Amino acid sequence: MSQPDESQDRIRVAIVLLFVIEHHLTYSGAGIVGLILAVTLNTFDTDHKISIDIYESSSELSEIGAGINIWPRTWQIFQEIGPGLGEALKPFFDHLPDLELRAIFEVRKADQKDGFKVRDVATRGGALRIHRADLQRCLLNHLPFPSNRTVPQNSLCTLHLSHRLIDYTESSPGSVTLHFSNQPSKTCDILVGADGIKSTIRKIFLSRLPDSEKYAKCMDPVWSGAIAALGHSGLMYFGKNKHTVVYPISGGRFINVVAAVHDLSKDGASWDGNRPWNEAVPQRELMDHFEGWDEEYQTLIKCIEQPTKWVLQRMNPLDVFAKGSVFLMGDAVHAMVPYQGAGAAVGIDDAYILAFLLTHSSTPRSISPQCLSNITAAYNCTCVPHAHYLSNLSISQGRLNTLQLPEFDSYSENDENIPREALVEVFRRAERNWSWTVSDIGEERRRAEEMLPGPVSGMNGERIVTRL
């Protein structure tokens, strides 16, 4: 089938970053999750019914961010959504994707003069670690821009820079007008808010729900009570109320370091809007937090000449990710603390499921209110519980990493008297928390498809352990 020349015959999808599909779909924010959505839409859009518009507020797509963990579950998605995408990513990994038992962290108790190894934490397949900028470049190279003839041109795709969304109006399901601060308004059939933890779309979306007062605590992210400094397979140094993870990314060209200081009394508190969420701080401030830790750890943090201090924030749980023509995904709807390395993975799951639903054989080119209702119901029923589970698991993981557990209440920071056996058991529990990384996205896809009319497709999601 030849591709139509004009987007009017397609579902227009706007992604904010931002994007449009043959059912007019818009998405906000030029982040990883939005780019994944665009790539996946194009791959699944074999009927050429999607037109994608990506809207980004900045004048260029900046290469920013730290490391991302790609787990076997996520690698399964990458293999499926982008011809050549997996091969383009492999040079950045320290090992080829497989399901061998691999250590993701060597865990050391370091908050004392003579620190010691507790145990390795290992999972099947381990973690493929990559710098966010490297992943972003690979995704951009797999978008179906007219100039990019190396990928299938199933969907139309246009990138709009310098478009800062300030509002949207939804006149009816399948009809959305986007309003920008400095550009003419645009229209779309589907609006996707992938605009991150400070999401403009989330705030508008929640304020217009029938019981909007119920979501007052979900408008803005809350402080997790932790401050982080960013700056072999991976190392975790831990002690009471503090821990640090260290691992190489981009084939060993960089070392990712995240040192976190936790204060449970601040968990769930609002962050003063007049204070920055991140700022450069003197090296001395970082070192003061970890005074008395072992020599190996002190040597490490002395290498971080200009640490950046971040407030680790998370979203209070939402029970709705989509309504009408508007869909939220990624950090815009379920920003979570980083202790499971799950935030990006769950956002990628969101993008995969929505792309599957929008390109499904039951979704017509002229998307009807009933069709939209089916898609939003399937998206909510599939993505909401999965995100909640991993968000809660990430919080629990942070408690384990910093010994913020009842059985350790009698111990203080820098305490050398905690029994080694108790620490070994803590990280056995932690290891079990990563079992989700080898689960199969096909199970969620089938659950979503069962909510759509028509026969179930032939996309059989064999268990991942038999595929890799």
From TrEMBL:
The keyword Oxidoreductase applies. GO terms for molecular function: FAD binding; oxidoreductase activity. Keywords: FAD, Flavoprotein, Oxidoreductase. Residues 187-359 form the FAD-binding domain. The keyword Secreted does not apply. One of its GO terms (biological process) is secondary metabolite biosynthetic process. InterPro entries: FAD-bd, FAD/NAD-bd_sf, FAD_monoxygenase. Gene3D superfamilies: FAD/NAD(P)-binding domain (3.50.50.60). This is FAD-binding domain-containing protein. It comes from Leucocoprinus leucothites.
